[in-house]
Design a protein that fits this description.
The protein is α/β, with parallel strands linked by helices. Strand 3 and strand 4 form a beta hairpin.
Length: 373
């Protein structure tokens, strides 16, 4: 580890690693303003993690908002070129209520977006980068993957009315099989199809095992092409990442905005997802864009709850001095320690809460020759 790495917070190290990862795959960094017109977020509140937005009135009378989300801002400002492919990544501050503190915070969010002519390779690459992003944080991680296109096909094939689909999705997201079956029965879905839905919701695990069983369960009942597409895409993910992939149809991002493959990432030690993404062509259409889109965000505020091992020491050396110390000699000695790789705190007195490996009193040890200056 480089000496400079010792001074970086865990989140900062993650951000640097993610930037390197995304840029190595042809993604360009996207920079944006800290605020947008409030209407952008007001019209898409359901897309936001939190609908609480900090607003202010600009000098021209327009109602502005501190940016609570990055994706909406990028879509608004990027060129709509459906026949080409645009790849961007970001690490930006957003302003919203933190899950951990339940208060407004400035939160660093990282992620990437891919726009335009999205094909199976584009989707596979984004899923691969999502998995790699989780591995950057912790080796103990899992990426749960679902397909909203399959759920929509089931709704159509089983004649589930649109007015009831939000409630059905809620039960699927909760894995509430009992209420899901009851609701489907009341809607007139026959027992065989109810059992197929229950199996879909309960099935969870390695794609190589789960997808074939789902295909067998749903074949002849609905259009299973989304499952077949997902099978091809996930088979192309690097073998080193496949153990962390998990099929789980309880991943149900808002169906008004998302379509196709969606996913959420989890790491051991944090009870909620730290990564979320998927295909959001419907959002693009809602914002009058012709391009297709897929992307994800890494919620770095969630890492505040990550059970990281505490540092043994805040600094390697506490170097103390007095009003009588020769400043030139003190400065020279401190810099020699730093160049040798030590983390040095130079102070007359230090807080009792600071942990250090070694104490050197310059006046009594260095100036008197007990330690070479």
């Amino acid at each position: 580890m480089k000496n400079s790495d010792l001074f970086l917070s865990f989140n900062e190290k993650v951000i640097f690693s993610l930037r390197s990862l995304y840029s190595s795959h042809g993604y360009s960094q996207y920079k944006m303003s800290k605020f947008e017109e409030y209407d952008l977020y007001a019209m898409n509140k359901d897309f936001l993690i939190s609908d609480s937005v900090i607003t202010f009135t600009d000098t021209n009378g327009k109602l502005m908002a501190l940016k609570p989300d990055v994706t909406l801002s990028i879509i608004k400002n990027i060129k709509d070129e459906p026949d080409t492919l645009s790849k961007v990544f970001y690490n930006e501050n957003v302003y919203r209520i933190s899950v951990g503190s339940h208060t407004y915070k400035e939160i660093m969010q990282a992620g990437l977006e891919c726009f335009g002519d999205i094909d199976s390779y584009s989707i596979c690459e984004v899923i691969t980068l999502a998995a790699e992003s989780l591995k950057t944080i912790s080796d103990s991680c899992v990426l749960d993957i679902s397909h909203l296109g399959l759920l929509e096909n089931i709704f159509e094939s089983f004649n589930i009315p649109k007015i009831a689909r939000t409630q059905i999705l809620k039960f699927i997201g909760e894995k509430n099989v009992h209420e899901l079956a009851r609701c489907c029965s009341e809607l007139g879905v026959d027992e065989e199809n109810i059992n197929a839905i229950k199996f879909l919701v309960s099935a969870s695990g390695n794609p190589d095992e789960v997808i074939p069983s789902l295909i067998n369960s749903l074949k002849g009942k609905t259009d299973i092409s989304p499952l077949e597409d997902m099978q091809v895409i996930l088979a192309a993910v690097p073998s080193s990442l496949k153990p962390m992939l998990r099929i789980d149809f309880s991943v149900v991002n808002d169906i008004k905005y998302y379509n196709g493959i969606v996913f959420k990432g989890f790491i051991e030690g944090i009870p909620t997802s730290v990564l979320s993404g998927g295909q959001y062509d419907k959002l693009m259409q809602k914002m009058k864009r012709r391009s297709l889109a897929i992307g994800f965000a890494v919620y770095l505020d969630m890492l505040e709850r990550f059970n990281l091992p505490s540092k043994e020491y805040d600094f390697d050396v506490l170097l103390t001095y007095s009003d009588k110390t020769n400043l030139s000699s003190l400065n020279k000695f401190a810099n020699e320690l730093i160049k040798s790789g030590e983390r040095v705190l130079v102070s007359k007195k230090a807080s009792k809460n600071i942990k250090y490996r070694k104490l050197i009193d310059f006046d009594s040890e260095v100036a008197k020759g007990e330690i070479n200056a």
